[in-house]
Design brief:
With 447 residues, the protein is an all-alpha fold. It has 16 helices and no strands.
Length: 447
Amino acid sequence: MKKIKLNIAALHKYTPRSIVHETSELFKQLNRTDSNIVIFIMYGLIYDVVLNFFRPFALKYLNRAGGTEFHISLFNSLPGLAAVAAIIPGSLFINRFKRKKRVTTVFFAISRSFIIMLVALPFIPRNLQPIVFVLIFTANSMFDAIGQNSFQGLLGSVLAGPMRARAIALRSKFGHAVVMLVTLLTGFIITFAPRTDEQRVLVYQIFFVIAFLISIFELFVFNKFKEKPIEKTVEAEPVNNTLKTLGSTFRDRRFGRFVVLSLFFYFTWHMGWPLGGIFQIKTLGANEMWLAILAVSAGIAAFFAATHWARLINKRGNWFVLALGALAISGNMFLYTITYHLPFMIIVNIWGGAVSIGVSTGLFNGLLSSTPDKNRVVYIGVYNTLVNLSLAISPFVTLFLINQLTIRPAAAIIGVLRLIAAGLIYLEHRRYVKGSKSNPEISLESR
């Protein structure tokens, strides 16, 4: 009896009332620290609403428009390839401005303008619709990537210390809740409201319009951000300065180690993204409602797991969390090998959602911890370029494995690669802990 009472008592912290209280107290603490952090969270939530009015069902829309597995792989890789070509030139361009908020807003506005272009897609010849959809989506993603890269540079000077992980976790936590609600609502509407394919296309068009309108409010909130300029403008001899700035990123050992290890993990993580889409839609036959259910299950898991991951980062450090997350997320791929029905896929997504929130928080927090204040936007630009290069290449590696081995063996291989990444990251964690003990000035969170 005593054991049961203890378990029930442990569940008390998960009641709606306790969650609201915990959230309220954390918001008060954040607000006392810096209003920019609250704006960061608010902007992130609105950004999630914009994305989730048109992205969760993008693959299904592409499939309905006649897209093949090649188009799905292209959809996953081309945005990354475009970002590879654009992020470094874009970050060097933005780095010239002492105040970066205004030019960042311009890139965001250009990105959001492509959303409204999707409304015209049904009016072009059907055989061109899949490739045009991929190209519009790529353009949207490319300009957004440049803007987000600049925004991350700004955040580096705003989010600091233990509050950083908590703020990022809170933004991710409620971001997943927003994603869950929006995806469930849109999935329900698009599954049950239209009775014909023509009506279903009309619903998609309405969603694109709503996303564009909300994006206008998103830009308004972003402009409430109070900029704290740190970097100096790049003045005379721009070519020499550009080469010098880029060279400094490769000479930074701490940044370099973070890039190499996180990039290898990113590649294994990215490999699973197109496989998941193909597996759910092509292999298991998921429609829009099932995609919404699967997204919601991952969102619920992420919502409850976010705070625990943030505490673990502050207690054990980013490297430990990344090693643990990489180990856990490898299990997600192994679960694919034994999944034959959509209901079981809910369990897989719950596992993936609970783990992914910790991994993404650790990666973002680790990136900000590994970059210096000077020229931070360029450092982050180099990093994001390499990450997007991974995003561009990995889907075609996944497609090759699927074509050679079928989808379940391909998932198993990806799982093994993720295990290797987890092992390498854990070795770096042990090295860093050893260095911290020999030098008390080094902490798990600081440079």
